[in-house]
Amino acid sequence: MDRHFYFLIISHLTTAQTAGLLDKYSTITVADDPPHNPCNAMHWRTRLDGQAALYEAFFNEAAVNPNGNRGRLVSAAGMTPNKINTATNDGAYGPEQHFTHKDTDAALMDVIILGGDSTNWEESRQATLSYLADNSVEWDNDDA
Fold first, then answer.
1. Is residue 76 part of a domain?
2. Does a structural domain hold residue 60?
3. Alpha-carbon gap, residue 1 to 33, rounded angstroms
4. For residue 58, what is the enclosing H or E element?
């Protein structure tokens, strides 16, 4: 289903791998309906340490399902898919996907669909604002 929503990527990879991973998310195809509406375009904000980013656009939800996320992780980290475990749970800000290394159980990436599955834009936005308020030290630059 196509809808306008926010999602969060938190990387536990190296700085170089994270840059590649976050770049892959910034190029997800937007479901531009109505056509050429600027508010539907991809928007993102990178956390101060560069290890996470928030994304907003009018997407097809399948773009951020566990299989799609695993594919981006495999590409960015240079891993094989069978070395990645995936677990899902309901978190405080929406459904979470956790990707770990099968052999070491090391965290690789977390994905949060802010506001939950099938929420409208305002519900997703409110979850995003709550997340940012609760994690302001990591996201806000007091020197700005």
1. yes
2. yes
3. 12
4. strand 52-60
Residues of the chain with pLDDT under 70: 32-35, 142-144
How many CA atoms lie less than 13 Å away from 27 in the CB half-sphere? Answer: 7
If you search the block for the tokens 């996470």, which residue do you land on?
52
Looking up tokens 């560069």, which residue turns up? Answer: 50
> Domain limits at 63?
2-139
Helix (H) or strand (E) holding 9: strand 2-11
pTM of the model: 0.91
Q: What is the number of alpha carbons within 13 Å of residue 82 lying toward its C-beta? A: 0
The predicted pLDDT at position 62 comes to: 83
Buried b or exposed e, range 84-94, using 16+ CB within 10 angstroms: bebeeeebebb
Residue 144 inside a domain? The answer is no
Structural domain count of the chain:
1
Start-to-end C-alpha separation, the chain: 38
**Residue at 103: amino acid letter:** D
d(CA 36, CA 137): 35
Instruction: Decide if 51 is inside a domain.
Output: yes
